[in-house]
Amino acid sequence: MINSKLPNVGTTIFTTMSQLAAETGALNLSQGFPDFNGPQGLLDAVGKHVASGHNQYAPMTGLPALRQQVAAKIARSYGATVSPDSEVTITPGATAAIFCAIQAAKGMPAVSPPATASNC
To answer: What is the helix (H) or strand (E) element at residue 76, kind and residue range?
Structure first.
């Protein structure tokens, strides 16, 4: 028999919040899954890119081309120059983005938390 090294956590907050949202008809922001299909054009574009080999995880800080576009948008919108290589980070979701923002505000290095089932 294999002994689990995971703690006996019982019902997770994600299960609890999903159930509560379903019971009350609330918008479920506890997990990153929609309860509707995306626009057909987006679905077609995703399928095309996955089929052409763009199906791997992005670099930890985000795709360079996306970081460059974000830096260009900041320059256009706010007149500020930021380095896409050292001042722009693309995160895999809100949890990592909030973590990085808090770490930056505290003056800590903005290193994303380790990947877990709760933030992937």
So the answer is: helix 64-78
pLDDT tens by residue, 55-87: 888 888 889 999 999 999 999 999 999 999 999
Phi, psi of 47 (to 5 degrees): -60, -40
Determine the Cα–Cα distance for residues 47 and 19; give it in Å rounded to an integer: 31
Question: 3-25: string of b/e by CB count within 10 Å (b at 16+)?
Answer: eeeeeeeeeeeeeeeeeebeeee
Asked if 59 and 89 touch (Cβ cutoff 8 Å), the reply is no
Token couple for 80 = 């500020």
